[in-house]
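Researcher: Quick test of sequence recovery. Tokens follow.
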């Protein structure tokens, strides 16, 4: 935001914008946010600026190098022994591949749908519907951590569980929104999913 608008912004503002529908796509969020701050910014311009910071430039590493995987491969393997795992991500295929192709657990996902694989990205349900095919949505469980995940699940008629750690910015407001959108449960971390999986299988 400072690069585009010259204005300093707070973490609380980032969380506010990230929680708005349609802003699971970081480029969309940057475009909307910068425009709201008085600097009209197209989606394409926001994407190009964002990518400089994400991938890095002029020999300086980008934020992609700082990403951390929060679920151990052993946990993924444990889930994969009990159910079919698939992934619907708001990342591009390139972004997904850079981070996840080097992760041993990625082989346990049967299908990975990125924003490049569907005509409409989140919050539309296209990715979930593509994964489901002709199967009953009620036999699936979608796990996500933002409002676009919940909207995708609702419109695909797939049961949804939200990951919402205690202490998250505007926890009560976000919890209420997830419940309003039909979340079956609010879990403090993704590894708390075990009990929920056992009930589904």
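Model:
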């Amino acid at each position: 935001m400072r690069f585009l608008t010259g204005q300093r912004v707070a973490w609380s503002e980032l969380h506010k914008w990230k929680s708005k529908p349609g802003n699971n796509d970081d480029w969309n969020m940057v475009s909307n946010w910068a425009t709201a701050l008085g600097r009209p910014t197209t989606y394409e311009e926001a994407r190009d600026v964002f990518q400089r910071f994400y991938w890095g430039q002029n020999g300086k590493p980008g934020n992609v190098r700082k990403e951390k995987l929060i679920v151990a491969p052993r946990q993924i393997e444990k889930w994969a022994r009990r159910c079919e795992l698939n992934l619907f991500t708001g990342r591009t295929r390139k972004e997904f591949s850079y981070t996840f192709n080097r992760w041993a657990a990625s082989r346990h996902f049967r299908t990975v749908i990125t924003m490049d694989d569907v005509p409409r990205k989140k919050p539309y349900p296209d990715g979930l519907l593509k994964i489901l095919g002709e199967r009953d949505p009620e036999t699936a469980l979608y796990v996500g951590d933002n409002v676009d995940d919940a909207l995708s699940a609702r419109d695909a008629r797939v049961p949804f569980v939200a990951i919402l750690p205690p202490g998250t910015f505007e926890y009560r407001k976000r919890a209420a929104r997830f419940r309003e959108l039909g979340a079956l449960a609010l879990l403090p971390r993704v590894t708390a999913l075990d009990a929920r999986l056992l009930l589904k299988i």
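The chain has a mean pLDDT of 91.
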